[in-house]
């Protein structure tokens, strides 16, 4: 099968114009089929403040009321997505911006209210990806660029970018050898959270289970690792967790970050 | 050749939720291949005011400085486009939002500075449409929904929605029998601007030339008519100018608005 890179970048890159510029140049230079998923960054929060809309968080998750939904739809789906698309086009990379609503590429449901009402937040079900449209676009050398938004019942929904990256990787894992890359602010998963050079270069499932029982992992990385192994379990060939500035190395054979495999 | 409807709606519909809802239901019910192009409406101006950005106009055209460009990219490319896409999806119409930047569908240039610097405004050259991507999407029963934005040299550009509709009609006129429909606030082109019932139902080129010499047309409609006949001249089969609320009739054989032909 052909290789496919599915790459998620978060706020720390989006909020830094120089870092974003370097990242997009590295991304554009990848020769294989590729998909980019971007998060939101601080721009939405800043715009919300300018408009007098308070950002509310519960357990680290933004509560998306209707005003906040408008802000994230504008910022993620409009400003951030289109600036990235225009920049990639200039770099000769035929980017095409998408949300889950466009072409009904990702079906979602509004998160059911249990203890907390998260508002207009999308939960994605497995098997909810219209992979035939994505497959066609990739075959035409077009590069999908996803904003972290989905839809249900006629409304947009704010949706976790890591989750979008994972479901895309799982769906397209049927057609491609997918390497799913999560860019974050560290070089990779650290053996010692206080030592930035203690990157675990290769983390197969067996080592993961071993290190998990030894409580090696910092709390912050655990959800990412669970997410990564869920993707591997669902058929994604490789997941890589690393720094955005190492993208070129992390799309090669000798990776800088943490390569996760079955 | 198959029929294709290319339909442009402007601010008067976008700014009225009830009118927009009816319009989108009518649009979704069109069985033939179709493309929607939306304008901006007052939302961008309102958001700009809330953010303390002044809207400047010269000769009725918005001057797009970098702050205004961010606002229109957010509002046209994000909020308006994605709300329309989500609404159409709910109506069972597989909409996919686009700007000229996405898939490099429309190539533009930043308007050259002569007497006036319009700022980040896009001018579209003929033969600048990537019609193969659009053709594929239409064949898959996907419905492109265009925001009035294009791109050049790594930046988005604010672009006239009527112009986008026209260039798309011309480019796709090679593959389809295109009816290009401009929705505006009147029933059609009026013989007497003070009599809303004086709609000219059919306006072939010969009648147009005749009525032009008799100074029948109000000044406001002249640019639209020039635009329409330019499209006819470039191979578009039919142009219809009518009211958004008459869409169902205006996509049929017995049209309510003004049907322009060669």
From TrEMBL, chains A, B:
Transmembrane segments: none
Pfam families in the cross-refs: AA_kinase (PF00696)
Keywords, in A-Z order: Amino-acid biosynthesis, Arginine biosynthesis, ATP-binding, Cytoplasm, Kinase, Nucleotide-binding, Transferase
Documented EC number(s): 2.7.2.8
Positions of the Aspartate/glutamate/uridylate kinase domain: 3-241
Catalytic reactions of this protein: N-acetyl-L-glutamate + ATP = N-acetyl-L-glutamyl 5-phosphate + ADP
Residues that hold substrate according to the record: 40-41, 62, 158
Keyword Metal-binding: no
GO MF terms held by the record: acetylglutamate kinase activity
Compartments, record wording: Cytoplasm
Record pathway: Amino-acid biosynthesis; L-arginine biosynthesis; N(2)-acetyl-L-ornithine from L-glutamate: step 2/4
Site description Transition state stabilizer, residues in chain: 8, 224
Principal subcellular localisation of the protein: cytoplasm
Record function comment: Catalyzes the ATP-dependent phosphorylation of N-acetyl-L-glutamate.
Assigned protein family: Belongs to the acetylglutamate kinase family. ArgB subfamily.
Protein name per UniProt: Acetylglutamate kinase
